[in-house]
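Deliverable D5.2: sample structural annotation.
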Amino acid sequence: MNKLDDTLQRAMTGIPECLAAGMVDLASGMVLSIKTVDSHPSEVFDMLAAATADLFQGPNVVAIEKVFKKSRGLPESVDHHYFQEIIVNSENLIHVFLRGKRQQQVVCFVCRKGANLGMVLTKARSAMPAVEAAL
């Protein structure tokens, strides 16, 4: 995953006040790569993977997506998800979660709260093709 590590590191340098970036595989529930300016215990990364999976495919999210598909006349088997991006603002940080085009990977970028949210989103979105190509 060296290529993915390098690509995440490059993405971080282009995103305003970015402190960390990671990619989670929703199918396996594993962190595929993570880059951060600080050191963290491995348990934090395991929790990140679990929390990301809950955000994008927890039981309530799946139920909401089923309702959306039904109301729009789409079959349940369509591999499309309505929740593509989730932004979480904590006390000191902005967490941007972006679902990949293949729908099974999510990239998370963590930035300082003082960063311009519009620029964080723009730069994070523009980094996604390179990150996904690095898989």
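Annotation notes: The mean pLDDT is 91. The beta strands are 18-25, 30-36, 85-89, 93-99, 105-112.
The annotation will be released with the project's public dataset once the embargo ends.
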